[in-house]
Amino acid sequence: MRHAHIHVTGIVQGVGMRPFVYREAMAHGICGWVLNAGDGVHIEAHALSESLDEFVDALSEHAPAASRVEHVEVVDLAPGNWDAANEQGFRIVASQDQTAHTTLVSPDIATCNDCLRELFDPTDRRYHYPFINCTNCGPRFTIIRSLPYDRAATSMDCFPMCPRCAAEYADPLDRRFHAQPDACFDCGPHITWREAVNGDACGNSSATPAVGTTREASDAIIERCVELLASGGIVAIKGLGGFHLSCDAANEQAVAELRRRKRRSNKPLAVMVRSLADAGRLCHIDDAERDLLAGSIRPIVLLRRRAVCGNDGDSSDALVLAPSVARDLPELGVMLPYTPLQHLLLAAAASHGMHALVMTSGNLSEEPIETDDDLAWEHLVAAGIADALLGNDRAILSRYDDSVVRVVDGAVMPVRRARGYAPQPLPLPALDGAPSFVLACGPQQKATIALTREGPNSLLRCDLCEAGACDCRLTVGDAAVVNGHGLGDEDSKACAFELAGEELKQKSVHEHAARERDGIDALVHADIAGDARRGARDGDMEVE
């Protein structure tokens, strides 16, 4: 009999790792326990030596698809350094918060196929529930407040599970075993609807919203939203990392009005379509682009546009978009739904003859994307940018815009690295004498924020995220979009920012340095042409 402590690091929280470990332990005859901690997943294992070796191999070889196991450390326990009771059975035990917060957190994951089937199954109890999820999909980083990753440390903490959800959560054989955002109409978040009356929101941020507490009420909200879009209206719609501004992408009057209200005169707008088939009616798609569109990340993908009735083999079935969506540009930014609500909206839109919706960031040009419902009402609806607001009562804790990528010679090239990619870190080469924990604030115009810190085996890694366009005051506290709220214990030892035209960002960095002066070794003024992504050249076009 062998007795060991196993420490697993990487992206191992919020990805179904503990349920996976439990099932593997049952399959290999392992006794002991597994728990989440601030520095990863810890396991105490008791089994025959051969079985334990096979179990350890499985932790890396068969880990959940959304996980990324970086290191598995196995330490044999000295005699007497374990409780004999742990040699009977295997269990998931309460998380511990007694270790350094160094583990990686999972990005948000697009709705999986199993949940999608349930979403449109009239016999399922979560039929048309806009927040359906499981251990394989759903919100992660945008709802996490602190580590270890447990429901109490997320914005789901105010939604106690009903008995049926709690039973799923506790069942090792269920797909929702220890799924922290698990919920249903009876116990979880609900969508809300507020609409300006005759185009006048009256500046009333406390306007009583309609709430989709039942399937019927929720469906009615979605139907009203789609009716407004079909009539040429503009709706602010809450997503995972913030609000979108949406309109019918085929309605030139609606798109032009959205541009006027948002003060976005020329920059191309992204569109969302229901399926790969609809995406193919808009653009040419190769295999790599298809995988990106339909994968678990679902960024905006820059694709080559089709001619409506061209002579180059394009189909007369091509979808026609309003000219103002992307002007005469040869590329179009396209994405597929990645939340249950978006799937429901696109399905309802199709029934009204709309096959593509503009989905641009929910903000006035050069302002941060809105995340709070009341502020979104004030800044988007009461301010006259949107005609209505489709929100919900689940708080967004980290602001994230949609990621933008293009495929060049088969390689994925990031244009904007945000939702779905961040906060996955980028590896960095070791630099002699360089501080191990550096805060870098990129161009104010794009609000790019990066943090470097030591990872496993003293390797340096960089957490990089673009929070979106922003020309207003940003505090260094907005670095939360990279390292989360309470997700990292270290204080920055150096700060860096660009010199040219970045007065507000410079002021924020200087204020941060003043507050943290005892821990700051250096305040670096930089004039940087690129950022950590640009090991390869980015393209010239970006969409919002």
Key terms for this structure?
alpha/beta; 544 residues; 6-stranded mixed β-sheet
Any chance you could write out the topology, listing elements then pairs?
Layout: E1 2-13, H1 17-28, E2 31-37, E3 40-47, H2 49-61, E4 68-76, E5 90-92, E6 104-105, H3 113-119, H4 163-170, E7 191-195, E8 210-211, H5 215-230, E9 235-238, E10 243-248, H6 252-262, E11 271-273, H7 276-282, E12 283-284, H8 287-294, E13 300-305, E14 331-335, H9 340-351, E15 356-361, H10 373-381, E16 388-392, E17 404-408, E18 411-416, E19 426-428, E20 438-441, E21 448-454, E22 460-466, H11 480-483, E23 494-498, H12 503-515, E24 522-526
Parallel strand pairs: 1-6, 2-5, 9-16, 11-14, 13-17, 20-23, 23-24
Antiparallel strand pairs: 1-3, 1-4, 2-3, 7-8, 7-16, 9-10, 10-15, 11-15, 12-13, 13-14, 17-18, 19-22, 20-21, 21-22
The helix tally amounts to 12
Count the beta strands. Answer: 24
- Fraction of residues in H or I helices: 10-25%
Distance between the termini: 58 Å
**Poorly predicted spans:** 470-477, 479-486, 516-542
Main sheet specs? 12 strands, mixed
Structural class assignment: alpha/beta
Overall shape: globular
In percent terms, what proportion of residues is strand?
A: 15-25%
The overall average pLDDT, rounded, is: 83
Radius of gyration: 24 Å
Q: What would you note in describing this structure?
A:
- The protein is an alpha/beta fold.
- The protein has twelve helices and 24 strands.
- The strands form three sheets. Strands 7, 8, 9, 10, 11, 12, 13, 14, 15, 16, 17 and 18 form a twelve-stranded mixed beta sheet that branches.
- β17 and β18 form a beta hairpin.
- The longest helix has 16 residues.
- The radius of gyration is 24 Å and the shape is globular.
- It starts with a strand and ends in an 18-residue tail after the last strand.
